[in-house]
Design a protein that fits this description.
globular, 12 strands, D-Maltodextrin-Binding Protein, domain 2, about 270 residues, alpha/beta, 2 domains, about 35% helix
């Protein structure tokens, strides 16, 4: 037997006898609002933690919370708090949800850039979304029917809009429902007569954000409470984070790491003193 063949046999034997270093996968599911923050942080986190794989998908806050409750993910992204019935169901399934704020968001009403309207009141927004105001002419605009764009009911963004703007009134049945912030941006950017609402980090030149009364959406007005549709963005885990999940959470809350990426994605980092 040749020396080369003997050497290859020895090398193969050593490789087979060594335990495989398996990477740990952390499954993350939920809010499309939180999604870009998590995706950007994940790229950098996995670069410095190659033994940890983050598997991330959207689908809405409700879907993320359900996945956590059903044991299908380790981390749920949510743009709203859990409801009492969701907490009760989680505990029934042996899951103890722990809420972790990771960013602040200013929910922003948006129109097509060609729309001359600059600001609106919460009452006017509610009247548009309930169908009481149906034409831009009623708000000083052109004589055109308003195309109402809303989010589907599994969305935490919809829940926030329902609570802070609609005051539990029903959205007009003719509203076009979209499954994500990005889909709302696309729909409004293509329709001069449309109105929608998105997370602050999704603002781009394809849509125009409206002020509410005399207040404009900004990190300062969101953190001070002046912006009336501000909210925190959350991650939920089953029990206090531990192991690699804690390592991920710590990374996201680090002012020089995850919080810096919150800002880079257009959202608002947490206040330094909480």
């Amino acid at each position: 037997m040749s020396f080369y063949r003997i050497l290859m046999m020895i090398l193969c034997s050593v490789m087979l006898s060594r335990p495989a270093l398996a990477a740990e996968e952390i499954v993350i599911n939920g809010s499309t609002t939180v999604l870009p923050v998590m995706q950007k942080a994940a790229e950098n986190f996995m670069a410095v933690n190659p033994s940890i794989i983050l598997s991330i998908s959207g689908g809405g806050s409700g879907n993320g919370i359900k996945a956590l409750t059903d044991g299908l993910c380790q981390v749920a992204m949510s743009s709203r708090d859990m409801k009492e019935n969701e907490v009760a169901l989680a505990k029934k399934n042996g899951v103890t949800p722990v809420r972790i704020p990771v960013a602040v968001d200013a929910l922003l009403p948006v129109v097509h850039p060609s729309n001359k309207l600059q600001a609106i009141t919460l009452e006017q927004l509610r009247d548009i979304y309930t169908g009481k105001i149906t034409n831009w002419k009623a708000l000083g605009g052109t004589d055109k029917t308003i195309a109402v764009i809303s989010r589907d009911t599994s969305s935490g963004t919809y829940e926030t809009w329902e609570e802070k703007v609609m005051k539990k009134e029903k959205v007009v049945p003719s509203a076009l429902l979209q499954a994500s912030n990005g889909a709302v941006v696309q729909a409004v950017s293509k329709n001069p007569n449309a109105v929608g609402y998105i997370g602050f980090g999704y603002t781009n030149p394809g849509v125009k954000g409206l002020g509410i009364g005399q207040v404009k959406a900004s990190p300062e007005t969101a953190l001070s409470g002046q912006w009336p549709i501000a909210r925190e963005l959350y991650l939920f885990t089953n029990g206090a984070p531990s192991g690699n999940v804690k390592k991920l959470i710590d990374y996201l809350l680090d002012p020089q790491k995850g919080q810096k990426m919150v800002q880079e994605t257009g959202f608002i980092p947490l206040p330094k003193k909480r």
